[in-house]
Amino acid sequence: MSSSSTPPPTGYYGRHIFFCLNERKGDEDSCSKHQAQAGFDRCKSRVREAGLAGPGKVRVNKAGCLDRCAGGPVAVVYPEAVWYTFVDADDIDEIVESHLKNGEVVERLLLAPDVGR
Ligand code: FES
Questions:
Q1: DSSP assignment, residue 59?
Q2: N or C: which end of the chain has fewer CB within 10 A?
Q3: Atom of ligand 1 lying closest to residue 73 CA
Q4: Whole-number Å distance between alpha carbons of 51 and 39
Q5: Ligand 1 binding pocket includes 66 (Cβ within 6 Å)
Q6: What percentage of the chain carries pLDDT values higher than 70?
Q7: Which InterPro entries would you find in this protein's record (predicted)?
Q8: Which structural domain, as residue segments, surrounds residue 71?
Q9: pLDDT computed for residue 11 by the predictor
Q10: Phi, psi dihedral angles at 23 (to 5 degrees)
Q11: CATH value at residue 40
């Protein structure tokens, strides 16, 4: 579960999470072929429902390819620059509750450091 915790960051947004929603045509793999849009939608609604959205709080954004496709779907949280991969809604809910809300990294969902394209 979570272990490392960080103090609340400062900035226009306290935390910013970017989801790769890149879609490649043909046989080439991309995050959009692994439920990336569903993860983004879930995160957006959970953040809003939890009252975490807005300046000084949390922003959820779409991104193009982040060049870590082999671990897709991927998302990255700033300012901590923590990279996640996820499978389902429960994973997203845990990222929202633990990291975006409380600053505690979700160790079980971390993307391995050597995963690239
Ligand atoms: S397609 Fe998502 S990181 Fe490249």
A1: E
A2: N
A3: 2
A4: 18
A5: yes
A6: 91
A7: Thioredoxin-like_sf
A8: 16-55+66-109
A9: 80
A10: -125, 120
A11: 3.40.30.10
Contacts of residue 112, defined as CB under 8 A and 6 or more positions apart, other chains included, come to 71
The answer to whether residue 5 is domain-embedded is no
Residue 96 lies in a domain: yes
The token duo for 24 is 């490649």
| Ligand 1 centre distance from Cα of residue 29 (Å) | 8
Please indicate, yes or no, if residue 3 is contained in any of the structural domains.
Answer: no
* Cα 30 to ligand 1 centre (Å): 5
DSSP assignment of 7-54: PPP-SSSSEEEEEE----STT---GGGGTHHHHHHHHHHHHHHTT-BS
- Is 103 among the domain residues? yes
Cis before 73 (ω within 30): yes
Number of domains present in the structure of the chain: 1
Give per-residue pLDDT as tens, 29-54: 999 999 999 999 999 999 999 999 99
